[in-house]
Amino acid sequence: MRSNLDLLKDSVDMLSGKWADVIPTFFFYGILTQVFNEFLKLFLFFGPLQLVIFDLAYFALVAPMSVGIIIYSLAVVNKKDFSFNQLFNPYDDYLKTIGLIFVLSIIIIGGFVLFIIPGIILSLIFSMSLYIFAEDPQVTIGEALRKSSELTKGYRTKLFLLGLIYTGLVILSVFTLFIGLIWLIPLFGITSANFYNDLKSSHRVKKIS
Predict the structure, then answer these.
(1) pLDDT tens, 154-183?
(2) Which own/partner pairs from 149-157 qualify as long-range (CB within 8 Å, at least 24 positions apart)?
């Protein structure tokens, strides 16, 4: 399996000539799923209960795009046709998609409620669940979680360190007034998709041996 730095380098090479196509898709995804929600709440003056209802409704509306951006990233990495419309593919199987995301959120939030470390560990164990589902929508929620646990076994520290690299690069983007995030966010998405592919390859080698 490639080192984290090699994954980043290979992802940069892979994005060469594709930045103009990839950046708008990731930018739209980020704005809609992260920024627009907070922007609306600034002007709607909700009370506490209204805020909870709004957040739940917004989550139900946009959460499937977290699978859509993975479908898009995997298409780029696997050198297949990729398009902005792939963001909306998961809405074709909305109930299973939102069900997996909800179960995954409950597991991880439960871990963080116990203590920080269990939350981090659970996040690493089940981090590939959405990738598995994005690649094979026929899997059940339980299968996606189980397969993620199997895939990440032995590589969770490596995945954690990759997350630290992402965090460090985001901090460094302060010196660009966060403008660097326009390139970093797509790079993170493509690198994570490459990480998933490497996990699958390593898992196949282990099974053969």
Answers:
(1) 999 999 999 999 999 999 999 999 999 999
(2) 149/125, 150/203, 151/196, 151/199, 151/200, 151/203, 152/124, 152/125, 152/127, 152/128, 152/199, 155/1, 155/199, 155/202, 156/121, 156/124, 156/125
Angle between helices 4-15 and 156-172 (to 10 degrees): 60
Between CA 190 and CA 171 the distance in angstroms is 19
Single-letter code of the amino acid located at 9: K
pTM comes to: 0.92
d(CA 196, CA 206): 15
Please say whether the beta carbons of 176 and 131 come within 8 A.
Answer: no
Report the distance separating Cα 46 and Cα 142, nearest Å. Answer: 36
The Cα–Cα gap between 73 and 138 comes to: 19
Residues 54, 138: Cα–Cα separation, whole Å: 31
pLDDT in tens, 2-26: 999 999 999 999 999 999 999 999 9
* Residue 31 DSSP code: I
Q: How far apart (Å, rounded) are the C-alpha atoms in residues 56 and 53?
A: 5
Evaluate if residue 122 carries a pLDDT over 60. yes
- pLDDT at res. 209: 45
